[in-house]
């Protein structure tokens, strides 16, 4: 079990560094260059506060708004894409490639295989976020003297780390879809739809009163990427909801993986049954 | 039910409405080498995957080493070495690291370093990445992985696929040695001479159904006989025109007959022409297999 876990970490080593450094570049470029175009931005504050931008989670009428829109809004979204890639790749991808057969044939309960992969994914997401959050915070330190803001590098660091439950929820949903659907391709497609629908749905629902009732169906609703959240942190209740979703998705993934016919590539309802006489 | 290394009762697997295997009742005794024969798609791999709990049966039950493969699968697989037919490995890993990981995941591995001896035997370079290996060398990795925990039961799906003849021979030696050490071996193969060389018994599966389970020598002895008769008087062309008898060749005074039934009537006929010599020609497992599958007529003709 420990060896399998170590191996899962080894497999993700490159991805952790690559995604961590890649995500670092995001705040380095967006936040690091802010002082050079801050004056120009002030001319467009009214335009940048249009509903169109808000629907995409962007509100740049202040530096805090800019920070929230570019860093705490988009970085978790990008991380969720990694969660989808990895979450669907770890069971469904390995099954598609045939590698899972050798592991499942070992004397290891299937729930342990799912648990190891979930833990490895969770740790990978956390490490990627930590690298990216460190990069973002250091960038803010570097430009601190050039911008007037109440947001501290520590605030920014923890605001980004607070996206871990969100990424974890999507990671576990992806894991579940990988254990449930016939192929990685299908699982990745469904998981991507869930992420994008959740992101856009959450932002749209926050602006359209008639959609308020369905707002809580979109997971991004539970992660606030706003200037206020940068300073005050996330609501603990929302974080717990995301963790609960991750736990439930993990449990369901475990259930479906336990009953799954590996190498067959079928939906659960397509499992074989003895045909009635004359049907065959 | 605990006396058999492998035991299945009414084992059926359907993929949706497509039949994988149907009502397979199989018993492999402890300590025997059992060959599982059948053409592609006959159900060999499906049967082996059910045993390893990779796929679940639609009906019936399967047991390995006295344990239910599904309800008690972890314990059932504990002393089993498995080589899948479609082997896929972690290309980015070095062979050595893969073996260490794999050995550590086998709970009752009594000799964690055995993979080294096996690798040397198969001349496998364990310092290389798996992705850099040829198909044959990847197959060697699979073979080592299957044998490395000195299992009580080996389930091998086409173990010599992609290997050169020398390595094929080494793998068959490994099978024999494991068997001599007390292991049961259950393997499928298309290379029938190797099955004939190492197996005690064979099972023949056709269209998902087990159509024969016999000792290799019984199968080759009983199924049909080929006899070369040399006559004092050359028999006429229609002398052996009867059910169950085929004239395979005529050569001067000699006639080679394939006799499936009515041996007594054949003998009555041949004595009429004065027999000067009789020679029984051995029938290979391959010929038996082809007879079961009725090459050319789509079904068993024997």
Observed structural traits:
heterodimer, A: 280 residues, mainly alpha, 13 helices, 72% helix, B: 302 residues, alpha/beta, six-stranded mixed β-sheet, four-stranded antiparallel β-sheet, 10 helices, 14 strands, 30% strand, elongated, disordered C terminus
Description:
- The complex is a heterodimer of chains A (280) and B (302).
- Chain A is mainly α and 280 residues long.
- Helix content of chain A is 72%, strand content 0%.
- Chain A is elongated.
- In chain B, strand 9 and strand 10 form a beta hairpin.
- Classes of the chains: A mainly alpha (280), B alpha/beta (302).
N- to C-terminal distance of chain B? 32 Å
Tally of separate helices of chain A: 13
Strand content of chain A: under 5%
> What's the alpha carbon Rg of chain B, rounded to whole Å?
23 Å
Low-confidence stretches of chain B: 296-302
Distance between the termini of chain A: 43 Å
The SS-based structural class of chain A is mainly alpha
Roughly how many Å is the radius of gyration of chain A?
21 Å
Oligomer: heterodimer
- Work out the largest interface and the residue count of each chain: A-B, 30 and 41 residues
Q: Helix fraction of chain A? A: over 70%
* SSE series of chain B: EEEHEEHEHHHEHEHEEHEEEHEH
The main pleated sheet of chain A reads as:
none
Q: Quote the average pLDDT of chain B.
A: 89
* Overall pLDDT metric of chain A: 89
Task: Tell me the strand percentage band of chain B.
Answer: 25-35%
Q: Strand pairing plus helix content of chain B: what structural class?
A: alpha/beta
Largest sheet of chain B: 6 strands, mixed
- CA-based shape of chain B: elongated
Helix content of chain B: 25-40%
Shape verdict of chain A: elongated
